[in-house]
Design a protein that fits this description.
Strand order of the largest sheet: 6-7-8-10-9-11
Helix content: 40-55%
Largest sheet: 6 strands, mixed
Number of strands: 11
Distance between the termini: 66 Å
Length: 385
């Protein structure tokens, strides 16, 4: 490593002149300082001073141990003093410490300490090299945070999947299954009573036909929830119109406004937009208790923009964390490099903005995930009042 090799050059090249070593020390792009055997600074280059915010004059009045944070001092009070002791002569090691800058801010640093035995400068000195690793630590923390989020999401998705399977199984068993059993029993009874008048049998057959028609419609509805064949074969606009029509009820109206635009070039984009509308309508009906929802979809300069506005209960963004539905939306959008922005006011409803670049016209920026914002995307709006 560069830092280690620099310290080794200072220690192990006796052929160099004292002037060469001083030039290397002063002009180095890394922070270097020299300590005496008591751990006091006797010299520090410009990078070392700039990194910690001290002038060289200020450092010359200090011991190196004073740079340690209070916690580090309690953990290793003799860390720097031992680095320059005669017993440590000839040793060199690397560690990570939290240092305290002049402005009292803390700085995670990688520290190299080397004893300069038989150096041209002076005996019983130690060379200390520091590297600011703040960005590295922040990246590690962000990576750890993302790892925890992924683990939580995986757990939530599994739970959601199991919940959906239980729901479908319950509907098939408690509703569809029971009704099919009644139809089968009725058919068996009709077979055993074949001597009944034709008029009565025709009436019972008509009732059976009505029940079978109802069963077919309900099974079709369950199947469509799991996979939309209309989206696959007829396109996004037709599938959205069908979805909004089926979701509309006497106390829940869905208004859809879609531009006369071409279908997305990518099936993944179509599916993403469809699933987001599906999830948003479910949330508006089941959780927000909205009476009106407006869905708007348009395409501007190669990007699809969609808004979903509801008149539901909304929620406090500072208190409520994103639910699984919103997490699912953002994860879908990441796959197509889209973005989602959400604005919700408690008691006044929720508004979602989605933007996805068309795959045929450019990849677009990477998704930033779920964003809470009061900004507005350039889309036409439907009145929800």
């Amino acid at each position: 490593m560069l830092l280690h090799s620099d310290s080794q050059r200072v220690r192990s090249e006796p052929a160099r002149s004292e002037g060469d070593l001083q030039q290397l020390f002063v002009c180095s792009a890394i922070g270097m300082a020299l300590l005496d055997k008591e751990g006091r600074f006797i010299s520090a280059n410009e990078v070392f001073c700039h990194t910690l915010g001290y002038s060289e004059v200020e450092l010359l009045k200090m011991r190196c141990g004073e740079l340690l944070s209070s916690f580090a001092q309690r953990q290793k009070p003799g860390f720097f003093s031992s680095a320059s002791s005669t017993e440590a002569s000839g040793l060199s090691w690397q560690t990570e410490q939290t240092l305290r800058r002049k402005d009292r801010s803390l700085m995670p640093a990688r520290v190299w300490v080397s004893s300069l035995e038989d150096s041209l400068i002076e005996d019983s000195l130690s060379l200390v090299i520091i590297e600011d690793i703040t960005k590295h630590k922040e990246a590690e923390q962000e990576l750890s945070k993302r790892k925890v989020e992924v683990e939580m999401l995986a757990s939530q998705l599994i739970q959601s999947q199991e919940t959906e399977r239980k729901r479908v199984a319950r509907e098939l068993h408690d509703d569809i299954g029971q009704r099919l059993s009644l139809v089968a029993s009725e058919v068996a009874l009709m077979v055993s009573q074949s001597a009944e008048p034709l008029a009565v049998s025709a009436n019972r057959l008509d009732n059976l036909r009505g029940e079978l028609d109802s069963l077919c419609a309900d099974i079709h509805c369950i199947s469509h929830e799991l996979h939309s064949y209309k989206l696959q074969h007829l396109g996004l606009k037709f599938a959205l119109k069908d979805l909004c029509r089926r979701r509309s009820q006497s106390n829940f109206r869905v208004n859809l406004d879609v531009d006369d635009m071409e279908e997305p070039a990518s099936k993944d984009v179509s599916l993403c937009l469809y699933r987001i509308v599906q999830e948003a309508l479910n949330n508006a009906l089941r959780h927000a208790h909205a009476r009106v929802v407006a869905v708007t979809l348009t395409k501007i300069s190669g990007t699809f923009y969609m808004t979903i506005q509801d008149t539901g209960t909304g929620f406090d963004r500072s208190i409520n964390s994103p639910g699984l539905g919103l997490i699912s939306m953002t994860e879908r959008l990441k796959l197509v490099k889209g973005n989602l922005t959400l604005d919700s006011i408690l008691g006044r409803g929720t508004e979602i903005w989605v933007s996805i670049p068309d795959a045929a016209e450019g990849a677009g920026p990477a998704s930033e995930g779920l964003i809470y914002s009061d900004s507005r995307h350039p889309v036409r709006r439907c009145e929800v009042a």
